[in-house]
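User: I'll paste a sequence; please echo it back and then give the predicted structure.

Assistant: Echoing your sequence first, then the prediction.
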Amino acid sequence: MLPEIVIIGRPNVGKSTLFNRLVGKKIALVDDQPGVTRDRRMGEADLLGLKFQIIDTAGYEDEDAQTLPGRMRVQTEEAIKDARAALFVVDARAGITPLDSEIARWLRSSETPVILVANKAEGRAAESGILESYQLGLGDPIGLSAEHGEGLSDLFQALRPHIEDEDGNAFDPPEELFEDEDGNPIGPLKLAIVGRPNAGKSTLINKILGENRLITGPEAGITRDSISIGWQWEDSNEVLHDVRLIDTAGMRKRAKVQEKLEKMSVADAKRAIDFAEVVVLLLDATKGLELQDLKIADQTLQEGRALMIVVNKWDVAEDASYLFNGIRAALDEGLAQVKGVPLLTVSAVTGKGIDTMMTTAFEVRKTWSKRVPTGILNRWFERAVEDNPPPAPGGKRIKLRYITQAKTRPPGFAIFGTRLDKLPESYRRYLINGLRRDLGFGAVPVRLNLRTAKNPFDDKKA
């Protein structure tokens, strides 16, 4: 595991901007509005060759622990316990505030080494703030600009003793492998939990982890960033499997999304779907299946991700059998392009159904990563064409010569032949349904491309 470095500071001092700078991607939401970040967010940082796990935290606020800001502060306090070092960020242009001083007192009482970072240090306007920061009693401040990338070499020198081992060697992240010798997927299962607000996504992940890792509460829309968390799941045979859980912001109907910040959160959730291998669409058993759920499911399939539907709050569901059968029927009708998407039930409160959900997720990923040998694939293709020959529009035959699997994750196939532009969509669906049914692809998205070989005499016709 990479050593963990945590970013601490009051709201709006540029913590998420620094996080994005260190990971090299704009993955944490950044806005002028304070309090954008709520949960801890992790990313792999590479600072001039120095590799570590960087953790972005919510702005530290002095509020009651039962309030939302208070629950955010508790998450920040938890983050620092296992960190190699903390980057305490202050705003050099605003100067030192009473809350900065309070945070500094708390950090001095902890056992975690603290590196003081004076952000927004570009220009003369920041000089007085940098001098003021000495009063915090945390040593020499490092002046930098997270937005413009200035001062990173000084940050490198300050972090280096906490990242390297006793011999001066940096910790390298393990290489992520994707397939074993038999072609089976290995490496962490990237599992995203998506759904409408208040479906219980963060509560479910907390139950899975066995700790209050994510902020939860009755307020809708608490989660803003897509939060990625490493975890190990132990199956029924006591074998450990690496999982990367991804919590996302609730996705409401587009017409209801008005605020800029919510639009950014929804866009971030959509990017999380693209990053994932398997997507769990979490429904609320007390509300059933709605049109917005079907839109999220359709988007997931359009992105080529493997999809599972999981109904949460099953412990309080009324007329459970009727509800389950109704959701199953609505899914088969609303997702006609993919029949039989896995439908499961869980309770984020009791934990019932979680092991079944994880077992199914690994099975679905294996199907999503499956490759069919060329010989088996073409024997199936010949039978499919013989059982149901393609039509002959205008009296001219459409010739289907052979098929090949072009890719996996999701499975993609290419058919070669002549006059394929005349092949009806209904026949294309016949082939895709046959691939799913006969070759074991089930309900994962399958891509089918039609390719016509170029006629070498075309250029000579004139």
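The chain has a mean pLDDT of 80. The CA atoms of residues 341 and 365 lie 13 Å apart.
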